[in-house]
Write a structure and sequence with these properties.
With 223 residues, the chain is α+β, with helices and mostly antiparallel strands. The chain has one domain: Pnp Oxidase, Chain A, CATH 2.30.110.10. The chain has five helices and nine strands; from the N terminus they run βαββββαββααββα. Strands 1, 2, 3, 4, 5, 6, 7, 8 and 9 form a nine-stranded antiparallel sheet that branches. A hairpin with a 2-residue loop joins strand 4 and strand 5. The longest helix has 15 residues. The radius of gyration is 21 Å and the shape is globular. The model has no long low-confidence stretch (mean pLDDT 96). The structure holds flavin-adenine dinucleotide. Flavin-adenine dinucleotide binds next to strand 7 and strand 8.
Amino acid sequence: MTGDALGPGPHTRVRRLPAKANYDRTVIFAILDEARLCHVAASVNGVAMVIPTLHAREGHTIYLHGSASNAVLKAVVQSGVACVSATIYDGLRLARSGFESSIAYRSVVAFGAATLVTEEGEKARILDHFVDAILPGRHHEVRPMLDAERRLTLIVAVTINEASAKISSGPTDDGDEDLELPVWSGTVPARLRFETPIPDTNGAMAKGDIALPPSIVRLLEGQ
Ligand SMILES: Cc1cc2nc3c(=O)[nH]c(=O)nc-3n(C[C@H](O)[C@H](O)[C@H](O)COP(=O)(O)OP(=O)(O)OC[C@H]3O[C@@H](n4cnc5c(N)ncnc54)[C@H](O)[C@@H]3O)c2cc1C
């Protein structure tokens, strides 16, 4: 591992199609930031378990949060090590054979030291960061978090010590022997798109005079 590389390390060497691997921290951080959710794995009572959840990155640290009774997060803290994976779905790569057909994606697998964040001020700061990771600027628009809500929330800081990215893109990987087959082949790009917001109809929202906040306007204009 050299310079800006976060891998390959003992756990992060991509073996299959290694040409698609990338260990550069800039690439890895960009995928983690763009991915809308992640998966966290742990061994719980001897059984491998994975949960999907939200994450927020700051430097080399991935923050995870969940309920204080979350089995996977508790196991991660107990073992002191976390494995976090995040994937962005970029579309279809349709080859002339089913075997070579695949999808376009950017994915990351990261390993790191896991610790529980307990200091109240730091928890508050990270939870605001979480709200903004979902929708930038949103934490200024919602009511501040209550102490009771913070107490119910477990925050785990995962300091990345090795990570890998794998990027599948571009034309399909058909073998030369298949190129003349009369089968449509190519790619169908895909991306996440937010549609017209649907206002809630309860409480103060029922009056219909609350404007779309800047965070949502920016989200819709920026896509
Ligand atoms: C949406 C999606 C669909 C996929 N479909 C297939 C499929 O149908 N068939 C198939 O063979 N593969 C598929 N892959 C790729 C798959 O994730 C693995 O890369 C593949 O199984 C080979 O892993 P390996 O044997 O090289 O690594 P393993 O020995 O399984 O893992 C070793 C290390 O390599 C790194 N690594 C492996 N895969 C990835 C990855 N995707 N991203 C980042 N780091 C990684 C990790 O650090 C991991 O700890 C898919 C990936 C994605 C994201």
